[in-house]
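Minutes, structural biology subgroup

Action item carried over from last meeting: produce the structure token record for TAF1A polymerase (Ptilorrhoa leucosticta). EB confirmed the sequence was re-checked against the source entry. Recorded below for completeness.
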Amino acid sequence: SSHEHKLNFRKSKEACLSYIQDALLQKQWKRAAEFLTCYVESLEKDYSREHIGPSEMIWRIGTEILWHHSQSSMKEFNCFMEQMKTLGVKRYLKVCLEHVFHLLCNGQIDEAYQNLSVAESWRFGEQTAIQDKEMKLIEAYRGLLDYYSWSKQKNILLEHGEDGFSDLAVEQEMHSYFRKAAVNLKEIIKIPGVWDVFVKCYVDLLEFYGDHNEARQVLNEYAYNSKFPANPNAHVYLYQFLKRQGESKKSLISALKILHDIVPSHELMIDFNTMLQKSKKRKKRQLGLEVIFAALDYAGWKENAKAWSCLARQLKQIVISEKHLDWIKQEWNSRKDWWPAFHFSRYLAKRNWQENKSLSYEKALVAGILLGKDCKYFKYVSHQGCKAQLKRFRMLKKFVNRHHPVYLRISG
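Output recorded by EB:
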């Protein structure tokens, strides 16, 4: 019967999709391609009046297969994408964008630019207004490629000096790219979102032509406008700009304080700690200790010799002066149950000693202050250092032994 035929047809399609999914998950690209071919052929034989919207599925799956298939070529990929553009008007601009990304990944800059220009001129009734966001992205990426061309011309100009008509022609072309890039980049970053690459490029254009006020305004808006999602990079870019402009330490610290609140493990926390340690204000020096302790809570920092050096130096200063031991105690109380196993095991002492003696020295000093002279890490490293007749390790051992009462006060 007609009903039974439709039911069987639906089941066979679902089974085919299941096989495709299985092949994709197992990275069996050839097998996935064969099943996709069957799926497309089956759709051509579908005489049911039910609305079926498989075009996006074919686009997504087909793109994934062609990207990974060992025998696919860029020519085949381009042909497939052109077919996908005609399959669904609603997805036209999205397919264009994905096509551009693949062209860029293959170094075909000119072809990508051409595709963006064609997409930018696309109009289809009401769909043009509905796809306004996609059109903004199309324009933004064209601005990005204009920036790329501007950057190339800028480098040519800087390499060849300022003589001759050829340089004048290069400069004129460069200004042309600047105007086109600036217009599109400025538009996209007005919309709340994460626009890191576009913001960086636009700020670079503004700085090159000396428009520092506009650059500052763009970065402040990107970092502090509550309509934009929380984005650590926004504060990184602002900090880097302020540093280039030679701004005050107060401004730099303010930018990094917010970054610390969002991502306490960010690599700029060493810069932040260094600035805070140089401050004459007690609260800022205390914050510096908090910052470096917080960074070392993360596994990615376990073997960062610079971070351990920052912590060791500050702890040593506090221990010698015997002022603000409560700062150390406050930070250590929440960590004393897990830092010993995380940072100061005998296994890590052996490995650190073999791989990086400078790191093992800084960590041993910290371990000795926080855990006393009987700490496994400190005992192993100081013993190995004295055995190797390294003067700094003998001094390290003496320092920790001399200040053992401080450890007792910290440990409570």
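Discussion: The mean pLDDT is 89.
Next step: EB to file the record with the rest of the batch.
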